[in-house]
Every structure is written in structure tokens, then in C-alpha cells.
Design brief:
The complex is a heterodimer of chains A (304) and B (357). Chain A has 2 domains: 6-41, no CATH class; 76-303, MetI-like (MetI-like fold, Orthogonal Bundle). Chain A is built from 13 helices and no strands. The model of chain A has no long low-confidence stretch (mean pLDDT 90). Chain A is mainly α. Chain B has 357 residues and is an alpha/beta fold. Chain B has 16 helices and 10 strands. Chain B is globular. The N and C termini of chain B lie far apart (70 Å). The chains are: A mainly alpha (304), B alpha/beta (357). Chain A binds chain B through residues 45-51, 53, 71, 75, 77-78, 80-81, 84, 135, 138, 142-144, 164, 166-167, 245-246, 248-251, 253, 257-258, 261-268, 271, and chain B through 58, 60-61, 63-64, 67-68, 85-86, 88-89, 163, 169-172, 205-206, 208-212, 214-215, 222-224, 337, 339-340, 343-344, 346-348, 350-352, 354-355, 357.
Chain lengths: 304, 357
């Protein structure tokens, strides 16, 4: 479609709906409705054999209760699991940022003809299934693999007891970073690639050191990319359950595992819904916070 | 290709595709690797139908899917307590015994259970026990016992195998093992005893490498893990794999002397079954001794079918965890369903266990 026809479409009201309608409908059907079902389920009781208790009970009373919310509030253990998940997600986000930034900068500064290839390499892992890649880490981190032998060999030199790499928080974090790294690289690259070289040249002419040029110019300008990448990493990392299930040790149960347990082993949909709502609200709040900080940052730059 | 040739080839394609699409289909919702491929082939030849299998990896997955309204399955193969949940939830249709003459092959000890008196809905298919599995070379070298739950719960014994032990990532199985170790019934629902079991688990937890229900077979096979709490057929499989890979050790089943959980999986027909006629044919077919024995020989599952005994490999019959002798069988318990309130309480204790340091 050419720009002109798009513009004409945008002008007519019908055209607007024709363009915005399908994605809007998709979001309502596949995001809003399930969320509302979840909210409704959170005020019900679990059914005797799974699902929900009948809405109208044998005694004619409606099944509406705050019990699941009370349960969440009266015990700190759920908050503990939740905080632990936040810590894991934060560490993952920071590690991804530290690893992705130089990589994204390198790609953005490379000659155009290599960039596509480099981006392709970043997204190459997506060509194989997520679970297969997680299982591959089991082999890499296993006690008889080269990595564990090398690490423990070095530790032995310093007289430190050998440490298991597999089934540990370390394994969970390494894999979380591995899986989410491309989600940080791509938005950072998209941002860094648009930077105007002339600004850096001007700064250099005015005597700014390499560090000053990065910290005063490149980094502030890249903040929108940082926030976008952080949200793309933090939110999925917060709810993940497969990685701790497969690679985690006995202390690595996270909020995602807890929610999965409610829907499977415990057959407690209402409490599972409550936990999911808390997770969704927390993710939305943090995304909102990131957007707000991002906007303020942009305004400050505009003022300066 | 010109248009006419294209149309002709479409017609030809349809001609090939139609008979296959119209063939009779039996939808079997089963555990992974829980029927021998040659058994399926023979059934397909006999009923002139096609068996379409989908898989689940635990009862909870099956129950969750059906509770969410999944339809179109003819046969399910859930474990006792899940059968109970399905019967009480009105998810099953009664069996027509006139179409199942082979029910007589089943050992009466496994019929007429408390959750399905008179076997109105379910017929036993195969079974397993939840026991210990261990690397015989390592356990002998360390001089540790392998016939007691103390092996995975007693910190004094665990000290020597720290980080080399996994337990099932299942609250029902682990609480059952802990309750048995404490001298109670696996089905005890007394809150005080549950808390005692939770404390026992918390004290042993620092010595375990992981709660693991998915990869302990492989970890045993390669020698990373030396002692597990797991299912008898998984441990049997781990040994087959270890021998096939030429490992210098064997993976052996350890039946705890205090008792263990017995899981009997039964064939049932879902209420929405599109083909109850084929489902009955399938159940009767699987109750034939030879067909039932093929599964046992393939995966080392226990077999409640008396007519199957003559076809089963003798080395399997000698395993007490697979074919428990009378004194062992007397100490095996099938898990019962919990009420929603009990499930909530146990999940709270389980969460505390998982979050404890």
C-alpha cells in the first residue's frame, strides 16, 4: 500500500476502523476476555473435583467469596515467593542489559552489509524450540560436562569444594539470561542504529572524552531502547516456570511454578487466578513505571 | 500446469484422501509410551480402525484439560484417585460389561475398589509403585541402606549423598512417602501429621539436588544422581538405558520396607466419547493376556492381568516393585482424593517447603 492510500484511509472514519479493528478485536478476544474470566474466577470457590464450584449452590446461595484474596494476605510465604521472582527477573534484566549493550552497539556501528547477518545470528536461537534449548543447558551444566569440570578444577586449585552447576539458582539465571538476551539486543540495536554520528563528532571537537561521549550523549539517547528491552525481558522472566522446573534446585521455585501448581496439582483455579492477577498487576505497574521514567528522561533531554 | 490438469489432480488427491478421512478412529488419551506399538498395530488390524493417541504427562494435566472442557477422547487411562475425581465429577460413562468378556482375566485383588465399587466405570490397565531407585555401585560403596524411606529423609544418611538425590516434584507423592516414613498411612489427612511430614521434608531438603519428575531417569542413567524417589517403571527404564550405554553400574529398584504408594491406572470411557463401541472393543482387546503383557515387557509396569502372566519375561516377574509378593503388597496403598480444603492446606504446606531455606 502506498503512503497516499494509507493517508486517505486514515482520514475516513471507516478506514480507521478497518485498519484498527482486527488487531483491536484480537486483543479483546484473546487478552481482555481471558483476563475478565480470571478476575471472575478469583472470587469463586474451587470445585470439588477441579474447575469452579457451581455458581448457585445446593442451598441457593451464590458462590462469591474473597477467601482466595484473604488466603494470599494472611500468609507471608506467597509474598516471599513473589519477591524472590522479582529478584530473579531483575538480575536477569540487568545481566541482559550489560551483555546486550556492547553487542547492540557493535552491530549498530558495523558496516551496513554485515548488520543483517549479525542480527540474523542474534535471532538464530529462535529457530529451535525453547524447551530443547533449555534441555541443552542440562547437558552443558551437568557435573560430567567440560564446563563443570573446568570450573571445579579452578576451584580445587584454591581449595574450594566443588560446586554443582546444574539444579541451582546459577543454572536458572544463566538460562534466563540466555533465553531473554535477544529481546534486549533488538530494541537496543533499533535505537542505537538511529543515533546521529554528528553529535558524537561535535562532542569530540569540544573536547569530550570517550567515556563522556558515551555517558552524556549515547546512553541518555538510548534510554527508550533500554526501557523497551528491560520491559521485554523483565515481564516474561517474572512469570517463567519451565526454566526453574527443569534446571532449578530445591530452592528455585518461583511465582510461575506456584501458579502452575494451582491449576494442576492443587486444582485451585480461584487461588491460581488471584496469584495471576497479582502478577499481571505488578507487570503492568512496572511497565507503566518504565514508560513514565522513559518519558521524563526524554523530556529532560529535550529541555537540555 | 494448466487448469484442467490441476483440477484433475485435485480430484485424484481427494480420492486418496477421502477413505482415510472416513476411516473409523479411536481417540486414546494416554500416558506417553504406555502401549506397545505392535499392540496398536494388531488392534488396528482387528477393528479395521485407526488409533489416534494424544499424551499427558500427569493425572493433573488430564484432569485440568477435561475440567476446562476438552472433548473428543474415547479412552483415558488415569490413576485411581483421578478415576475417583472423574467419576464424582460425572465425566465418565458406565461400561457395558456384556461387551467386556475379558474382564475375568483381571486379578480380583485389583477389582471392586473403594472409588469404583463393582467396576461400573473402570477396568485396571497397568500399575506402578512409587519407590526408591539407586545406583548400586555408589550406594554399596557408601554403605547406605536402600530398603527404607530413611534413605531420602534422614539427614544422617543423606550427608554422604548430598546433592546426589532427587525426589518427585509432586506434593501428593512426597507427602505420602514422608507420612509412611513417620509410621502413618499414606492417606492420612490429619493436619498435625501433615505438618510433621512437612517438617521432615524441610529438614531433608538441603541435602536434595532437586525436586524432579521429568529428568531423573536420565540423571540416574548418566551417573549424576545416585538415589531417587521415583516410579518403578521409570527406574526400570533408567537401568535399561544404563545397560544399553554400557555404564559400569546398575540402576536398581529399592522397595522401602515401611510400605509405598501403589498407582493402578485404569481404562475408562469419557462421557463425550465419539465411539463408545470402539472403546469397548479396545478395552476388551487390552485385557487379553498377550496384549497386556506386551506393555509390561516394554516398560516394566506392574500387571493386574492374570492371563498375562505366561507372556511376561521371568526377570520382570522377579522384581518385587513390579510384581509385589503378598507381604509387600499388604503394605502398598493407593492414594485417595482430597477435598478442596485439604488440597489448599497441602498446597500451602508445599509452598512453605519450596520457599524454605
Amino acid at each position: 500500500m502506498t503512503g497516499a492510500t494509507l493517508g486517505a484511509l486514515r482520514e475516513s472514519r471507516w478506514g480507521k476502523w478497518a485498519v484498527a479493528g482486527p488487531p483491536l478485536l484480537y486483543l479483546v478476544v484473546f487478552f481482555a476476555i481471558p483476563t475478565l474470566i480470571m478476575v471472575a474466577a478469583s472470587f469463586r470457590s474451587p470445585g470439588e473435583f477441579g474447575g469452579l464450584a457451581p455458581f448457585v449452590g445446593d442451598d441457593g446461595r451464590l458462590d462469591l467469596t474473597l477467601e482466595s484474596y484473604v488466603r494470599l494476605a494472611e500468609d507471608t510465604v506467597y509474598l516471599e515467593v513473589f519477591l524472590k521472582s522479582v529478584v530473579y527477573a531483575l538480575v536477569t534484566t540487568l545481566a541482559c542489559l550489560v551483555l546486550a549493550y556492547p553487542l547492540a552497539a557493535l552491530i549498530a556501528q558495523s558496516p551496513k552489509k554485515y548488520r543483517d547477518l549479525m542480527l540474523l545470528l542474534v535471532i538464530l536461537p529462535f529457530w529451535s524450540n525453547f524447551l530443547i534449548r533449555v534441555y541443552a543447558w542440562m547437558i552443558i551444566l551437568g557435573p560430567n560436562a567440560a564446563l563443570a569440570k573446568a570450573v571445579n578444577g579452578v576451584l580445587a586449585v584454591f581449595g574450594v569444594e566443588p560446586v554443582p552447576l546444574l539444579f541451582s539458582s546459577f543454572a536458572v539465571l544463566v538460562c534466563l539470561v540466555y533465553v531473554h538476551l535477544p529481546f534486549m539486543v533488538l530494541p537496543l540495536y533499533a535505537n542505537l542504529e538511529k543515533h546521529d554520528r554528528a553529535l558524537l563528532d561535535a562532542a569530540q571537537d569540544l573536547g569530550a572524552s570517550a567515556w563522556q561521549r558515551f555517558w552524556r550523549i549515547t546512553f541518555p539517547l538510548s534510554l527508550p531502547g533500554v526501557y523497551a528491552g528491560a520491559a521485554l525481558v523483565f515481564i516474561p522472566a517474572l512469570g517463567i516456570f519451565a526454566i526453574p522446573d527443569i534446571l532449578g534446585g530445591p530452592n528455585d521455585s518461583l511465582i510461575g511454578n506456584l501458579i502452575k501448581q494451582q491449576f494442576l496439582e492443587t486444582r485451585d483455579w480461584p487461588f491460581g487466578s488471584v496469584l495471576s492477577i497479582v502478577l499481571t498487576v505488578a507487570a503492568l505497574a512496572l511497565a507503566g513505571l518504565a514508560a513514565w521514567v522513559g518519558r521524563r528522561g526524554a523530556e529532560e533531554i529535550a529541555r537540555a | 500446469m494448466d487448469k484442467r490438469a490441476f483440477a484433475a489432480s485435485l480430484v485424484a488427491l481427494a480420492a486418496f484422501a477421502l477413505p482415510a478421512a472416513a476411516a473409523d478412529k479411536l481417540h486414546l488419551y494416554n500416558w506417553n509410551n504406555y502401549i506397545a506399538p505392535e499392540t496398536i498395530k494388531r488392534f488396528e488390524a482387528e477393528c479395521k480402525c485407526e488409533v489416534v493417541q494424544t499424551y499427558y504427562s500427569d493425572n493433573e494435566e488430564l484432569l485440568a484439560k477435561l475440567a476446562a472442557g476438552a472433548k473428543g477422547y474415547d479412552i483415558l487411562v488415569p490413576t485411581g484417585n483421578a478415576v475417583e475425581a472423574l467419576i464424582k465429577g460425572g465425566q465418565l460413562q458406565p461400561l457395558d460389561k456384556a461387551k467386556l468378556p475379558n474382564v475375568g482375566n483381571v486379578d480380583p485383588a485389583y477389582l471392586n475398589t473403594s472409588f469404583d465399587p463393582g467396576n461400573r466405570f473402570s477396568v485396571p490397565y497397568a500399575m506402578s509403585t512409587t519407590i526408591l531407585g539407586y545406583n548400586d555401585a555408589k550406594m554399596k560403596e557408601l554403605g547406605l541402606p536402600t530398603n527404607t524411606w530413611a534413605a531420602i529423609f534422614d539427614p544422617k544418611l543423606l550427608e554422604k549423598v548430598k546433592g546426589r538425590v532427587t525426589v518427585l516434584d509432586s506434593a501428593s507423592e512426597l507427602f505420602a512417602a514422608a507420612l509412611i516414613h513417620l509410621g502413618y498411612s499414606a492417606n492420612d489427612t490429619d493436619e498435625k501429621r501433615w505438618r510433621q511430614a512437612a517438617d521432615l521434608i524441610k529438614k531433608a531438603k538441603p541435602y536434595w539436588a532437586a525436586f524432579n519428575a521429568s529428568s531423573y531417569i536420565k540423571e540416574l542413567t548418566v551417573g549424576n544422581i545416585w538415589l531417587v524417589h521415583g516410579y518403578s517403571n521409570d527406574i526400570f527404564q533408567a537401568n535399561l538405558d544404563a545397560q544399553a550405554a554400557g555404564r559400569p553400574f546398575r540402576i536398581v529398584q529399592g522397595m522401602p520396607k515401611e510400605g509405598a504408594v501403589l498407582a493402578v491406572d485404569s481404562m475408562v470411557i469419557h462421557k463425550s466419547a465419539p465411539r463408545p463401541d470402539l472403546a469397548h472393543k479396545f478395552i476388551n482387546f487390552m485385557l487379553e493376556g498377550r496384549n497386556s503383557a506386551e506393555l509390561t515387557n516394554l516398560i516394566g509396569s506392574g500387571n493386574p492381568n492374570l492371563a498375562a502372566a505366561q507372556y511376561i519375561k521371568p526377570e520382570l516377574k522377579a522384581l518385587p516393585a513390579v510384581f509385589p509378593p503378598k507381604d509387600v503388597a499388604a503394605r502398598l496403598e493407593q492414594l485417595k482424593e482430597l477435598t478442596p480444603a485439604q488440597r489448599r492446606l497441602r498446597n500451602k504446606l508445599w509452598t512453605e517447603i519450596k520457599a524454605s531455606r
